[in-house]
Specification:
Elements: E1 4-11, E2 16-23, E3 26-33, E4 39-48, E5 70-71, E6 75-81, E7 84-97, E8 100-113, E9 123-126, E10 135-137, H1 160-168, E11 173-178, E12 188-196, E13 208-212, E14 235-238, E15 240-247, E16 253-259, E17 263-267, E18 274-276, H2 278-285, E19 293-294, E20 304-306, E21 314-319, E22 322-325, E23 332-335, E24 338-341, E25 343-345, E26 350-351, E27 354-355, E28 357-359, H3 361-364, E29 367-372, E30 377-382
Parallel strand pairs: 3-9, 4-8, 17-28, 18-25
Antiparallel strand pairs: 1-2, 1-12, 2-3, 2-7, 4-9, 5-7, 6-7, 6-10, 7-8, 11-12, 11-29, 13-30, 14-17, 15-16, 15-21, 19-20, 20-24, 21-22, 23-24, 26-27, 29-30
Length: 383
């Protein structure tokens, strides 16, 4: 049994977390992302769509100079994210992450993309299910953004954690302990840990809850090749939401109410913010003092502008019978000289006409989270 533990670096003022990976004997920096499933690297001479430079780190992966890379014929790599797309070729390559080596991991080598970088990373390490991977048939599979072609006609393969379990006897789960880093630090080496088959060494409660990973019924069947029995995202049920104001001389006496309407949410560290159903978001934002202002930012009317000195309302999500509360520091985010709420309405976020809720990175800073693809469950412990 091979276990692995790796430190994470927080970047973009704590909005993303990165890991070091060795791919074909070269070392790279990858964003980790529980909201996607592919490992891809920027290839040489890639084109950035929509900007002159997508601002990635200087290293690229050249498949022609790696003795261990084997190109997969008659397949196209094409992944579509909320933030854009990436496309290129696929191949098998030796990949080492957290000290665990997978000799034949399928990876994407990207030649064209529209996803902005952070000046550091060289690609993304996706950690979700095989039916969210992004290999498609043919050498010139069409990128039809209007019809979301990259979300259809998948040729599913094993993402890296699944390969580790199959080939290295690594336990079929990984765990994230993501740290809160100072708001004024653009890059922090203290971003936390990811453990493959081992729990990160971060302080946490001894009380754990477990909840099943669910299939999202609203997703169009075409996204999973009409296999509606297949899991894709790390989606779970939030049983209730507790919202309230902080009162009393030291703001420790919250006055809260609980809305027991459940909703399904995707646990996605790659999303810096959380998205919850519209009525819950409206209620939460109505309790800010000074008031939260929606539509303040002309470039994005979905954001709520808040005072940087405001005391955020209480926010807790019940999962598996326990309510997990947010630290107030994770509910305000500095932006363009003012601040925004790190909570959004899922009604403002549509993918192929489907509104999806997300528990993003700010939520994950408050828990130790275990992603178990052997049991198809998630476990949480408060931090």
């Amino acid at each position: 049994t091979t276990l692995g533990l790796a430190p994470l670096t927080a970047t973009e003022y704590g909005m993303t977390v990165e890991i070091q990976a060795t791919v074909g004997n070269q070392n790279f920096t990858l964003d980790i992302d529980t909201g996607s499933s592919d490992l891809w690297l920027l290839g040489p001479n890639s084109t950035c769509i929509g900007a002159s430079n997508c601002n990635y780190g200087p290293l690229t992966f050249n498949p022609n100079t790696s003795s261990t890379f084997r190109h997969v014929q008659n397949e196209t790599f094409g992944v579509f994210y909320g933030a854009g797309f990436a496309t290129g070729i696929l191949g098998h390559e030796e990949v080492t992450v957290a000290g665990i080596t997978v000799p034949n991991q399928k990876i994407g080598v990207v030649s064209e993309l529209s996803i902005p970088g952070d000046g550091r990373k060289n690609g993304i390490l996706g950690l979700a299910y095989p039916f969210l991977t992004s290999a498609h048939p043919g050498n010139n599979y069409l990128n039809d953004l209007e019809n979301l072609s990259y979300l259809k006609n998948r040729l599913p393969y094993k993402p890296l954690p699944f390969s580790m379990a199959a080939e290295n006897n690594t336990p079929s789960w990984f765990a994230l302990g993501i740290n809160r880093t100072p708001m004024n630090e653009s890059v922090s080496p203290n971003g936390g840990y990811i453990g493959f088959g081992t729990v990160p060494p971060v302080p946490h409660s001894d009380n754990w809850v477990e909840t099943p990973v669910v299939i999202i019924p609203e997703l169009p069947p075409s996204f999973t090749n009409n296999r509606t029995d297949k899991r894709t995202f790390w989606a779970i049920e939030v049983q209730s939401t507790t919202i309230g104001t902080r009162t009393g001389s030291n703001l420790t006496t919250p006055v809260t109410s609980t809305n027991s309407t459940p909703f399904i949410a995707i646990v996605d560290n790659g999303n810096p913010f959380s998205f919850i159903p519209g009525p819950l978001s409206e209620h939460y934002h109505s309790l800010w003092s000074p008031p939260a202002v929606k539509g303040f930012f002309s470039d994005d009317p979905t954001k709520w502008q808040v005072s940087c000195d405001a005391i955020p309302p209480v926010l807790g999500f019940e999962i598996g019978g326990i309510t997990f509360y947010h630290d107030a520091r994770d509910l305000i985010f500095p932006m363009n000289g003012t601040c925004v709420s790190s909570l959004f309405s899922s009604d403002d976020l549509s993918l192929a006409g489907v509104s999806v809720s997300f528990l993003g990175l700010q939520f994950l800073k408050n828990v130790l989270a275990v992603f178990d693809f052997g049991e198809n469950s998630m476990r949480f412990s408060a931090r």
